[in-house]
Design goal:
It is a single chain. The protein is about 40% helix and about 10% strand. The protein has helices spanning about 10-15, 40-45, 50-60, and strands at about 15, 20-25, 50. It has a three-stranded antiparallel sheet.
């Protein structure tokens, strides 16, 4: 049986931590940055962690080897 393919769009957006949590980059840090507060921009830099219900779906359907 051939290898399963992961959804490339998901593979580019999500990554797994060592403990199996799903990490992603937060939105709203691409353009129109002048009106956003420095504190908000600083907090958006940190990676987000998906909730467990969403993470299960991403791991199962989109990243089959995760």
């Amino acid at each position: 049986m051939p290898k399963m393919k992961s959804k490339r769009s998901a593979a580019k957006r999500f990554s797994l931590t060592g403990t199996g949590k799903v990490k992603y980059k937060k939105m709203n840090l691409r353009h129109i940055l002048t009106k956003k507060a420095p504190k908000r921009k600083r907090n958006l830099r940190a990676a987000g962690i998906l909730s467990e219900s969403e993470a299960t779906r991403v791991r199962k359907q989109m990243l089959p080897y995760g």
